[in-house]
């Protein structure tokens, strides 16, 4: 998944002629973080809100960074987004308890518990979300719902 995200960021930057420095300015994300995103360094501790800021600065949806085929989709800027947590809903649909999930998910219980019980996923690490999604047998984008607030 890291490769897809990083490839899409780089492709979108190239298509739009956006440099690392420019993307840093547009997104408000430190240039070192942007550089790591582009240079294929480990994304495991990258927060969802960082990727969202990068996607927004590039004029694409967060989901477009995960999907190789949709990176050209454009969107309007929004003032604030919350990623509503849908993990509990998915667990309920699949009839899986937190204890059962902790047995099949390689995330330590306290981290798993925090991720499941947060109302929003904005500050949850990408690697944590990816591991939870894999354990539940869903796509990472199924774990949240984008809510736009003015």
Report on this structure.
Helix 2 packs across helix 3. By secondary structure, the chain is mainly α. About 7% of the residues have low confidence. It is 54% helix and 8% strand.
Which features would summarize this protein structure in a list?
two-stranded antiparallel ribbon; 434 Repressor (Amino-terminal Domain); about 150 residues
Shape: elongated
Q: Helical content, roughly?
A: 40-55%
Oligomer: single chain
Which residues form runs of ≥5 with pLDDT under 50? Answer: 71-80
What structural class should be given to the helix and strand makeup?
A: mainly alpha
CATH class of the largest domain: Mainly Alpha
Number of contiguous helices? 9
State the end-to-end distance: 31 Å
Radius of gyration: 16 Å
N-to-C series of helices and strands: HHHHHEHHHHE
Total beta-strand segments: 2
In short:
The chain is mainly α. The protein is built from 9 helices and 2 strands. It is 54% helix and 8% strand.
């Amino acid at each position: 998944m890291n490769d897809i995200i990083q490839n899409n960021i780089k492709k979108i930057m190239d298509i739009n002629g956006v440099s690392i420095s420019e993307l840093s300015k547009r997104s408000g994300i430190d240039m070192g973080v942007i550089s790591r995103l582009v240079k294929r360094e480990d994304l495991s501790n990258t927060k969802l809100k960082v990727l969202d800021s990068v996607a927004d600065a590039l004029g694409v949806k967060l989901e477009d960074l995960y999907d190789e085929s949709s990176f050209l989709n454009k969107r309007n800027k929004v003032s604030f987004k919350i990623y509503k947590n849908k993990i509990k809903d998915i667990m309920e649909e699949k009839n899986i308890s937190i204890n059962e999930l902790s047995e099949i998910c390689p995330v330590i219980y306290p981290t798993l518990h925090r991720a499941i019980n947060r109302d929003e996923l904005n500050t949850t690490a990408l690697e944590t979300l990816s591991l939870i999604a894999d354990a539940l047998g869903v796509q990472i984008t199924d774990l949240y719902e984008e809510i736009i607030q003015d």
